[in-house]
């Protein structure tokens, strides 16, 4: 479903150093020789410290950013060339930013989404009812998005991303800042979506609770390179001295880079 | 193309419906918009309180030029005026959100936060034009040019706004430079070009074709001599100028978008 | 005399203000400025305001460019008018062109198109409650920052368009150092009057739910009655008389007339000072009302 082959992305950063007049240019490799394959129906976690290249990868998958090298295919389409077609097959949720229309009531956002993604009215009705029930949106569906609490807004975002029944769902830190109850609800829902509809899910997160509860497979990116690609158990096993997954991951970040026992990757 | 038009109308309709929830506030804002724009025509009236002619043109003639350019400008502002916020959309990440959707980012920007209050400006210009027309004493066989010039003017202004928007992919920090061309263009066309110096008029005829918004076609409608003595044929060149600008704008936008996607933000 | 923790001695270092009260500024006038802690505080705020706005270099340059373009366009219109009516309202063509570029120069420092105060945003979000708890006058605090902002904008957005106007059209200049000093004082007073008006508009967001209406009204009044659109001196009859009495005239028309030497300096500065005092006074009352509403009522 998602195919990355030797993908690289370099940025030219121009910073004015204090004490100097001219701006200096530096080439920063945000992503370097990244390759992985996600099969349909997989639920994959994507971990990495800040600045590791997670957001860059996501942007390239969506087609907002074009890679400087390598090849990407999502649902068989090249995101940089077929962005609009791909958009119809993709659902995206940003935890830190909403994809809904800020000043409009939630139901208006849903209606706009239906028309934008050309969803059949009957299917839309059924899907919306189902999502409202599962995510408990009924209470605030008439409220403008800007007045919603964070938990409500994230649930709204997830519903909007799934209204058109995309085969691929990409989530960028959806549980950030949520309270325990909301987190549990979101996680339960994502699990169902993956299990019942076979939606391929790529989840970026800092929250290892998400990883443990939801993902069969986890990828770890550090300094733009894939540092780990395997199951959660394999991840735990890779640093046997540590007991909690958090400490395992922290160890990997701190040791800075690729670790030798890299599992063959969930080929599914 | 049709699909994109539907998307635009859909977004606009949704925003208008949301604004209509607060009719009192909306009415006040529309009135406010009307009044703010009326200040420009008030200035013209004050000027004509002191002189019967300005640079060789009478008050009804100036009001005619002001009105036609004003309608073109206001309609363009209503349609594409939001593009001057592209810089802030990029900085806040909202532009990326628009790129996720299967719809033209340009139309999404154009339709964003559409408020019926924008009609206030159009109304004000239209009223001025309506007052001026009966007082002009023009040859009505020439009146066909009036809708042509308004539409051409609209396209030219939209093109300028689009190019200004595309420029923001390059100069995210300084969107104000574009204002000099968009709002500057609006200001320029409020008065007959005989007011301005020769070089400036040539620049807005051959470089940034603002002269074709209302001046050249206006000379035809009013049956006046061109004070600069430029070729008579230029009076019919508005649609051509509009077409060229539209093409340039489309190219500029595509280039800007391509650049945005290859350099990130 | 409130307890001020011993500020008057040369060895005093630490100043404490009684909680919740502004420092009594009258008594501080008896001290030399550099000893006065209030002065030090506000000077620092002034510098802060300057530096904060100085980081937006590109935007300021762009603003200067736009101001220049509009200056050129409007200058032509005024030239056309003065050629049709030479000597209108006691100006000649050069005066009119100079006036035009002066108004463009004032756009930045006097924030003719509104804004420049973070305060509006803070009132809307409620953050202003934090500002009101400080033991210093919110109005003076904001004024100090605004003067810093005005100074920066004067350098970057006022001088270049004026020079451009001088190069393209030729402008008039004041004769002699006294005239320049008078102009300088007039500009500062103009900024203060503009500040006082914007301050009141910003605070209005505390009572009016949607402050866009007030902002819109303020914009109309400022553009029209400050002399931005056309010199107030050519406004006919009663409109002209009214316009020259209102505070907005102090923002643009009066400093411009002082520059051109068309106004009696004492009367002009007096007019500005009077309105500045009146509006700042209104601002103090408004602040008190806001403090009551926000801090005590929690509204």
Walkthrough of the structure:
The complex is a heterotrimer of chains A (268), B (265) and C (299). Chain A is an alpha/beta fold. Chain A has a domain at 2-89 and 166-254: 3-Layer(aba) Sandwich (Rossmann fold), CATH 3.40.50. Chain A has nine helices and nine strands. In chain A, strand 8 and strand 9 form a beta hairpin. In chain A, helix 4 (121-135) runs antiparallel to helix 5 (150-162). The N and C termini of chain A lie close together (11 Å). Chain B is an all-alpha fold and 265 residues long. Chain B has one domain. In chain B, 68% of the residues lie in helices and 2% in strands. Chain B has twelve helices and two strands. In chain B, helix 1 packs parallel to helix 6 (105-111) and helix 3 (59-80) packs antiparallel against helix 7 (119-132). The model of chain B has no long low-confidence stretch (mean pLDDT 90). Helices cover 67% and strands 0% of the residues of chain C. Chain C is built from twelve helices and no strands. Residues 1-21 of chain C have low confidence and may be disordered. Classes of the chains: A alpha/beta (268), B mainly alpha (265), C mainly alpha (299). Chain B binds chain C through residues 25, 28-29, 32-33, 35-36, 39-40, 42-43, 46-47, 49-51, 53-55, 171, 173-177, 179-180, 183-184, 187-188, 191, 195-197, 200, and chain C through 56, 58-59, 61-63, 65-66, 69-70, 72-74, 76-77, 79-81, 84-85, 88, 210, 212-213, 216-217, 219-220, 223-224, 229-230, 234-236.
Features:
heterotrimer; B: 265 residues; mainly alpha; C: 299 residues; 12 helices; disordered N terminus
What oligomeric state best describes the polypeptide chains here?
A: heterotrimer
CATH architecture of the domain at 2-89 and 166-254 in chain A: 3-Layer(aba) Sandwich
Number of helical elements of chain A: 9
Q: What's the average pLDDT of chain A? A: 84
Strands of the widest sheet of chain A, in order across it, are 5-6-7-3-8-9
State Rg of chain B. Answer: 19 Å
CATH topology value of the domain at 2-89 and 166-254 in chain A:
Rossmann fold
- Mean pLDDT across every amino acid position of chain B: 90
